[in-house]
Amino acid sequence: MTEARGPAVPDDAAHPPGTPCWVSLMVHRVAATQEFYGALFGWEFRPGPRQLGPYVRALLDGREVAGIGQLPPDRHLPVAWTPYLASEDADATAELVRHCGGTVGVGPLDAAEAGRLAIASDPSGAVFGIWQASVHLGTTVTCEPGAPAWHELLVRDTSVVAKFYRTVFGYEDEPAAPAGPDHVALHLKGHPVAGIRGVGSALSHDRGPHWLTYFQVTDTDEALTRACDLGGRLLEPAHDTAHGRVATVADPEGAVFSLVDGVG
């Protein structure tokens, strides 16, 4: 994680290209997943576009923060939170992803009147989304309890993927001290918007390279206890960092995310 982030985006403004603008989770049991996150973060839900199957948008005090969709029953895909990166032209961004060694697995396609999307993976295999906003601008609240606070890509080493994201989305990258020697913060106009952390052999063999979403909470220890009581599973105990107290958990279907209570 890094201490500073880009300026807040007004509710009626599109996110600048390259900015993480939405986060979505595809699961096998949508209703049960709504119950878990509703109880954990205080989310409420309303229906969203159904191009990829049943889908709901999570609301925090009436503002959209995330999406939860239904995986096809005949496909056994990993259950994981996926960040979407803003684009002014999803088709052009998808083509650039392919040109730079990534893969486009879904789309680009229209999500009704909401916008246009694609789901891609970088050269390391980590999955992310591309979002070209129309009616749906993306997450309208961040860095408040119950909302996304930060997105970080975990890989074995940062060298190849940092170049990929810099080329595709125009990021400036800089070492993100004091998080470690192989940690890069991706900047837009001087503001860090996401991070890449090389963890070497500590990378999970089961998950491989992946994006990790941090959700802000008021009290990490209390939220961790609540998540486990609701059927979640502890992966990394709560510990203090320079940017707040952090813990990592998996929800009842195995989707991994982090809790943080003091993002600067």
Explain this structure to me?
There is one protein chain. This protein has helices spanning 30-41, 90-99, 159-169, 220-229; strands at 20-27, 44-47, 55-60, 63-70, 81-86, 103-111, 115-121, 127-133, 148-155, 172-175, 183-188, 191-198, 210-216, 233-241, 244-250, 256-260. It is of the alpha+beta class. The protein folds into 2 domains: 20-133, Roll (2,3-Dihydroxybiphenyl 1,2-Dioxygenase, domain 1); 148-260, 2,3-Dihydroxybiphenyl 1,2-Dioxygenase, domain 1. The strands form 2 sheets. The protein has an 8-stranded mixed beta sheet, covered by helices on one side. Strands 10-11-12-9-13-16-15-14 form an 8-stranded mixed beta sheet. The longest helix has 12 residues, at 30-41. The chain is globular and about 45 Å long. It starts with 19 loop residues before the first strand and ends with a strand. Mean pLDDT is 89; it is low at 3-11. It comes from Streptomyces poonensis. This is VOC domain-containing protein. Residues 19-133, 147-262 form the VOC domain.
Question: Which characteristics define this entry?
Answer:
2,3-Dihydroxybiphenyl 1,2-Dioxygenase, domain 1, 264 residues, 2 domains, eight-stranded mixed beta sheet, disordered N terminus, alpha+beta
Task: Show the helix and strand layout.
Layout: E1 20-27, H1 30-41, E2 44-47, E3 55-60, E4 63-70, E5 81-86, H2 90-99, E6 103-111, E7 115-121, E8 127-133, E9 148-155, H3 159-169, E10 172-175, E11 183-188, E12 191-198, E13 210-216, H4 220-229, E14 233-241, E15 244-250, E16 256-260
